[in-house]
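Design request, tokens follow.
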């Protein structure tokens, strides 16, 4: 794997809280931190069958994930601790190389908000087949234990359109302020030295990590948009439990109520 095509993580900016699990310093993230992910039922089936989908930053809809920021920001994307003394050309050349590499980083997004969010149901699920899983940072890391990956974890910081003066590590954990309600926790993946992860390639548009779903999924919440009057909601619940008995008694219904669903 050509490691020169994606940026190295600045290890001095992280604490290693478990083998290969790095969290941003002063982030408050621990192995017990609860995290949640909204998805369609098909994604849950994939996880329980051993496939966890991850994406490149540049495959997300936010243009800033693609490496686009203002030239003003370009002058500040320096390694941690470096002073801003180089001329603009050198700054921008370094920035150009870094942002292109960072756009290829493989990652996965969760939210730290336990309360249901209507906007998340709308944005990340397809209505009748939407679910939300709950896990912890530690359980997620344990479920990927045999993948030969390092995890770099932090909560996103939200900025105005200009993003502002931020260094390289802050850059990969920065988003436009309009996404602030998501309270996102971002996990980046990097192969450990001399290890391969089943054909891991950071340039694949969609990549599925081999995962232990029983370790990862701690509970499942059903979408509020699943109609109850037809018995469809009960059918979905029973279907999940029948296919994956491990999830029996770990599935619950949304607390959001819609008149059309009853």
């Amino acid at each position: 794997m050509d490691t020169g095509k994606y940026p190295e993580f600045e290890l001095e900016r992280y604490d290693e809280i478990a083998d290969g699990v790095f969290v941003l310093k002063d982030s408050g993230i621990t192995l017990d931190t609860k995290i949640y992910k909204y998805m369609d039922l098909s994604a849950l089936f994939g996880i329980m069958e051993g496939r966890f989908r991850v994406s490149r930053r540049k495959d997300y809809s936010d243009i800033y994930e693609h490496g686009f920021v203002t030239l003003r920001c370009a002058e500040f994307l320096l390694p941690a601790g470096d002073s801003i003394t180089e001329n603009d050309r050198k700054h921008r050349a370094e920035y150009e190389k870094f942002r292109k590499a960072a756009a290829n980083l493989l990652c996965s997004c969760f939210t730290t908000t336990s309360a249901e969010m209507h906007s998340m149901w709308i944005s990340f699920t397809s209505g009748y087949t939407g679910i939300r899983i709950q896990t912890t940072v530690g359980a997620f890391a344990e479920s990927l234990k045999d993948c030969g990956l390092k995890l770099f974890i932090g909560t996103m910081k939200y900025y105005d359109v200009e993003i502002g003066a931020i260094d390289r590590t802050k850059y990969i954990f920065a988003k436009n302020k309009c996404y602030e309600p998501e309270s996102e926790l971002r996990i980046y993946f990097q192969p450990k030295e001399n290890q391969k992860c089943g054909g891991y390639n950071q340039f694949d548009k969609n990549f599925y990590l081999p995962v232990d779903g029983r370790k990862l999924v701690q509970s499942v919440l059903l979408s509020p948009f699943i109609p109850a009057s037809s018995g469809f909601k009960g059918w979905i619940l029973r279907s999940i439990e029948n296919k994956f008995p491990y999830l029996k008694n770990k599935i619950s219904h949304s607390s959001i109520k819609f008149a059309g669903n009853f």
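Comment from the thread starter after seeing the answer: thanks! Helices lie at 41-48, 71-74, 88-102, 118-124, 137-143, 168-172, 213-216, 232-243.
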